[in-house]
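so my prof wants the structure for this chain in the tokens format not the other one, which i didnt know existed until like an hour ago. anyway here's the sequence
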Amino acid sequence: MEHQNPPRLGNQLCFPLYVISKEMTGLYRPFLDELDITYPQYLVMMVLWENDGLTVNQIGEKLYLDSGTLTPLLKRLESKHFITRQRKKEDERVVEVFLSETGTLLKQKACEIPRKIQEKLNLTENDLAELKETVQKILNKIENK
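here's what i got, hopefully its the right format
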């Protein structure tokens, strides 16, 4: 049997992606602390700012989260009065999520965050577009496997 060397951390694609994800979340933290939300809550709010009145399942699909992970996030956002959850009249098993007035106002404050992150990273619009395109290609390949 041929002796194989163990995988080296520096040769793995997954490791820098993991570190970038962790560090990016950390960059967002001070800005999100000002809004009194966590990064996962920010993701939920962005989905709702784009399309208010989605079901829990629709939000989960957009964020790649199951309802067991998403429900506690939604409960916390509701306790902060950023959203409301309502059972659908036609099917009470389905829960729809709506922005509250406070949640809608939060959008105005959050609009500055992407610019602040770009300034912290000192990347051009083109750098960011290229990076996003490459990462999206990887995600598409994973989704289509």
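also thought this was worth mentioning. The helical segments are 14-35, 39-50, 56-63, 67-79, 101-110, 113-121, 125-143.
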